[in-house]
Design a protein that fits this description.
Layout lengths: L1 H32 L13 H7 L20 E3 L4 E3 L1 H4 L4 E4 L1 H10 L2 E5 L3 H6 L5 E4 L7 H6 L6 E5 L4 H12 L4 E5 L2 H7 L6
Parallel strand pairs: 3-7, 4-5, 4-6, 6-7
Antiparallel strand pairs: 1-2
Length: 196
């Protein structure tokens, strides 16, 4: 009888130790994967991340640009590097300077949206503004929701306050690319750019 009790204690201790090890392993995984500098598998991101991004890790699938598809990387023509799209799209709207705004506007690839009141628009607007959507109008959100989400947008207000709030709408409604003029039309004028 005493031998059975000792064997039972030993087996129970081994099982308890195994459960504790499994618990600690799960805790470490969950803790690390939620920390900056660690990926979702709890692995430290460092030089291997850079190597993986550029397709330098042995045995991985690479596309024509050297991006590793199994790691979620694709080629970005805009950035001229391998990126993970879900990381790139975390922020749909980007705050850019008047100079960057003008370059994008001059490319002809963007729809220019003035989100000031119609009165402000009549007083002067950035040339090429094809849409004037009054931020204060009761149907503003409805009008924004009906815009083509796949087009590229440049938008501005007077000083940047309204367009800052509109950037949250861009994210909420699922726009793929939108740029907000830092400082609004006031910064545009201060940079020496023309208005109509």
């Amino acid at each position: 009888m005493q031998k059975k009790n000792i064997i039972g204690l030993i087996v129970g201790g081994v099982v308890l130790i195994g459960v504790m090890i499994a618990f600690l392993g799960m805790y470490k995984f969950n803790y690390l994967s939620s920390q900056p500098g660690y990926d979702v598998d709890g692995n430290k991101i460092g030089q291997n991340e850079k190597e993986m991004k550029k397709g330098k890790m042995v045995g991985e699938d690479k596309d024509e640009h050297g991006c590793i598809g199994s790691a979620g990387y694709v080629w970005s023509e805009d950035k001229k590097e391998c990126v993970r799209p879900w990381e790139e799209n975390k922020k749909v709207s980007h705050l850019i300077s008047p100079e960057e705004f003008k370059k994008k506007l001059d490319s002809g690839e963007y729809v220019l949206v003035d989100i000031r009141t119609p009165e402000e628009f009549k007083e002067g607007h950035i040339p090429g503004a094809t849409l004037n959507l009054d931020f204060y109008a009761p149907d503003f959100k409805d009008k924004v929701s009906k815009l083509d989400k796949n087009k590229k947008y440049l938008y501005y207000c007077r000083s940047g306050h309204r367009s800052g709030e509109a950037s949250e709408l861009a994210k909420e409604f699922g726009f793929t690319e939108a740029y907000e003029l830092d400082g609004g039309i006031n910064a545009w004028k201060e940079a020496g750019h023309k208005t109509n």
